[in-house]
Amino acid sequence: MVKHKHYRPPGKKKEGNAARYITRSQAVKQLQVSLPLFRKLCILKGVFPREPKKKVKGNHHTYYHLKDVSFIQHEPLLERLREIRAYERKVKKADAKKNRDRANLLRQRRPTYRLDKIILQRYPNFIDALRDLDDCLTMVHLFAALPAIEERIEVKRIHNCRRLSHEWQAYISRTHKLRKVFVSVKGIYYQAEVKGQKVTWLTPHPLQQVLTEDIDFNIMLNFLEFYEALLAFVNCHLYRSINVKYPPILDPRLEALAADLYALSRYFDANSQSAVLDPQASSLSGSGNVESQQIGDSVSESELRLAQLQHQLPSNEPGALMHLVKDVAGEEEEDDDTRECKKLFKDMKFFLNREVYRESLLFVIPAFGGTVSWEGDGAPFEENDESITHQIVDRPMHGRQTLAREYVQPQWVYDCINARIILPTGGYLAGRDPPPHLSPFVDNEAEGYVPDYAETINQWKTAGRSEVLPLPGVGKEDLEDPQNLLTEGVIDRAKAKEAVEKKKKMMALERQYHDELNKELHGVPHSSSVSNIDNRISGKETEDKEEFDDDSELAKLVLSRRERGNLEAAEKGIKRKKDHIDVIRERKRKLKESQKSKEG
């Protein structure tokens, strides 16, 4: 009798790949669940198909490891899902019998489940959760930007994603953990460094999303269910590490007015002096559900929290959470990168025009030490605030510019973040084509090509300061007016303002000289008004003398050689005219004294 190669006598156990791997159909039959429920269990438990070296059943099957299937089979969640399925049959039966009261009662008492134990099984250490956070953040930020559709995506899922994403951004921004930002066609890439782990995620552009029919949202919602729980667990751990209560409680009245900054500021002020939550009483729940465990003072907090979860948050911004973790001491000391990022936009105040993508800039600017506001209700300061240093615009400004601030495009903020220096604003002025936006995720030396703008930035870094280089085709000697110098990007706005003030002072002195000279020539006596003007001008000159002398050298450095010569010539001419006026006054005084002596 000839035995076949794969012949197995009756009663003998299987060996090799046939014993270690089973197909998806066999796994579903072994677990006694439906295919959608099997997919959901695999997603929650982290079980993925395998590729055995030898596929016993053929290449057209999907294989799973036998130990993974047994791992799912002993999961308590499996029994809970079976109970929920049986409960749904009761609701369906009540609807079929048109027993609406019983159906409504059953829907209110619908059983739920939690994913805390599954998260602890998959991520025993917090560092393990941070390493697997890239896809989680990308998925949550994606659903936070999608429209709510009744048959596919519920409204509460969208709001929960927005809340979790803003809580994460608030922590990253306030603790200055953001490292890289890149704006691409797909969206905006961010990279942060949390507890030594680099976390990279992608956020979509603020455009209207169109949902197509060829996407299976059931699988994506299963992933989202686990990611929501994971991100809530991570946010809770991070907030507790800096001694801040989680989840934050917002006043729904201020939320409706988009005044999230003030709402969270009030919350932080009310809870900054309170004790930190008991670590043993904390729940590692990732579902985001809130349980009221205290009586008395906690009643109002529970009502506010419930209002927060039920209230629609279309205007909720990540900047609303900045004051929540303000001036709190973290567990770990700041490293060199954190200190460098914290001081990049220090002492700078930004104002965002309404055409600018507000949510991204509200996230990145405070992460690097800047102060930001916007146009609308709940803004920290208005557009007419004189302390604003930079205004972010995305369209040309016609007739509304002031010399006290810089008007730059949003790309300037991102390029400064990636370069870690304050770049010149000449190439980023409104209405201009900005320089190329280089990706910080590309290693130019490894690629063997360094862009020209990257070499220019490296030269500025080596020099220790961002020197303003002359633009091609622009000669400094041809730019007579400081406003033209500013427009062409040769000088910055502060130096142009100083030059304009110097020019106004010289013109005022020249007009004063001509007025006094005309009065002296016509024999008009020196009136009290003229003397008061002289006294005021002399007093002002004595007050501004030191400031004028200190800034004269700086103003001369801004101007070209021809302009410096004209300035020195004008100063000499004014000095000669002043001396001439003094001589005429002295002669008149002597003439009056001689006339009085003769009359006496």
From TrEMBL:
Query: Record's Pfam families?
Result: Pescadillo_N
- Which ranges are annotated Polar residues under compositional bias? 526-535
Report the residue ranges that make up the BRCT domain in this protein.
340-430
Q: Does the keyword Nucleotide-binding apply?
A: no
| UniProt entry tagged with the keyword Flavoprotein | no
What positions belong to coiled-coil segments? 77-104
The cross-references to CDD domains, in alphabetical order and at most eight, read: BRCT_pescadillo_like (cd17709)
Record region (Disordered) = 522-581
User: Which PROSITE patterns does the UniProt record give?
Assistant: BRCT
Choose any GO biological process term that the UniProt entry carries and state it: maturation of LSU-rRNA from tricistronic rRNA transcript (SSU-rRNA, 5.8S rRNA, LSU-rRNA)
Name the domain of life.
Answer: Eukaryota
Keyword line: Coiled coil, Nucleus, Ribosome biogenesis, rRNA processing
One of the record's GO cellular component terms = nucleoplasm
Classification via InterPro entries? BRCT_dom, BRCT_dom_sf, PES
Select a single GO molecular function from the record's annotations and give it.
ribonucleoprotein complex binding
**Where, subcellularly, is it found?**
Nucleus, Nucleolus; Nucleus, Nucleoplasm
Q: Where in the sequence does UniProt note compositional bias of the Basic and acidic residues kind?
A: 560-581
Q: Which family does it belong to?
A: Belongs to the pescadillo family.
- Function summary: Required for maturation of ribosomal RNAs and formation of the large ribosomal subunit.
Q: Which PANTHER family match?
A: PESCADILLO - RELATED, PESCADILLO HOMOLOG
The protein's matches in HAMAP family, at most eight in alphabetical order, are given as: Pescadillo (MF_03028)
Recorded protein name is: Pescadillo homolog
Origin organism of this chain? Prunus armeniaca (Apricot)
Q: What is the lineage of its organism?
A: Eukaryota, Viridiplantae, Streptophyta, Embryophyta, Tracheophyta
